[in-house]
Amino acid sequence: MRPESRANAFASTLGLLGLLVVTFAADAAGSYLSVVSENDLYVDGRDRHYTAGTQLTYGFAEGQAPDWLSWIAALSPLDRGVEAREVNLAIGQVITTPEDLSLASPPLDDRRYGGWLFGLLSATTHAPGMEDEVGIALGMLGPASLAEDAHKFLHDITPSIEPQGWDTQLDDEPALLVQLRRSWFVPVKPDDVWRGDLVPRLQLMLGNVLTEVDAGLGWRFGSAVYERDQPTRLLIGGTTAAPRFDVRPGRIDWMFRADVTGRAVFHNVFIDGSLFEQDFRDLESKTLTWDASAGMFITFGNLPRPAALSFTYTWRAREFEEQRGINRFGSINLAVQF
Question: How far apart are CA 22 and CA 27, in angstroms?
């Protein structure tokens, strides 16, 4: 596809998303919109492995999601009924690549080119000191994910080489991912100057995209720290898809956070290949691995519409034995309350 064709395709997609957002946002005050961009180029200066992810999330005002969507919140043990349900809709895309983009036939001991385009329905529910998230993502792997067009478009508009190996990407395949997360909030400094807490977290992801169990611990402190496991991250990149945040009217508040997560990975389609496709890659995936991250989350309660902005730096340990060094990527999140 030519650069101008890619640009037209992306402009049409953005226009459709904008129309959907305006339609939803008109329904009720108190809704949220979040845009997340994750990219290794933000911190590492190179494309490799989990190289980019983008997600647009709309959060219905509490208790305002239509009945045909709000059922998902009832799957949480913390569900307190329709009026307390926080339901979110998202659309996103993930792009993975091998290390050397100049090769038309990437080596068999590196990741394949791959993409995942998904729609996500999720819900967050709360009890004192706890938060649950339940999510179901459906979409497509392979050429139908439009990852090739997206990756080449990004390289057309930046001083980057043209990736040559997309003909070797994963085949088309329907994709499912179910996510369950429980976070706890343990105050460690609840005074009036700044607040802090510890956030133990358990997470299960199950599907033909990812199957893994995570256990993590976060440390947060700042001028305002709320019982929400923020900021928004992509499912493959982090912990939560919820776009919600709290603010103090008229105030700008900040929160620093640092996390470490142990991951037991039983299947990763971007490393192990498809469950339905014979793959001759010579990769030995690692079952036990880890992530570490640090970042800043800022809320703006002094704007006409409350907003939040965050940046997170993530270090991801080697995910297969042949991998050279750890991966690093940055996450930028902008969220607005209507």
Answer: 9
Cβ pair 219, 265 in contact under 8 A: no
Which residues are paired to 312 by β-bridges? 295, 331
Helix (H, G, I), strand (E, B) or coil at 71: helix
Closest by CA position to 327, among listed 297, 285, 296, 290: 290
The model carries a pTM of 0.89
Minimum mean pLDDT among 136-140, 181-185, 229-233, 329-333: which range? 229-233
Q: What is the dihedral of CA 166, 174, 94, 157, to 10 degrees?
A: 50
- CA 138-143-144 angle, 5° bins: 40
**What distance in Å separates the CA atoms of residue 152 and residue 104, rounded to the nearest whole number?**
14
List 290's β-bridge partners, or say none.
262
Q: For residue 231, what are the CA distances in angstroms to 179, 184, 203, 244?
A: 17, 15, 16, 8
Q: What is the pLDDT of residues 66-88, one digit of tens each?
A: 888 899 999 999 998 888 889 99
Q: Please tell me the predicted confidence (pLDDT) of residue 10.
A: 45
pLDDT (0 to 100) of residue 18: 53
Which residue reads 């997560």 in tokens?
261
**DSSP of 287-303:** SEEEEEEEEEEEEETTS
Lowest-pLDDT range, 90-99, 153-162, 172-181?
153-162
CB 289 within 8 A of CB 309: no
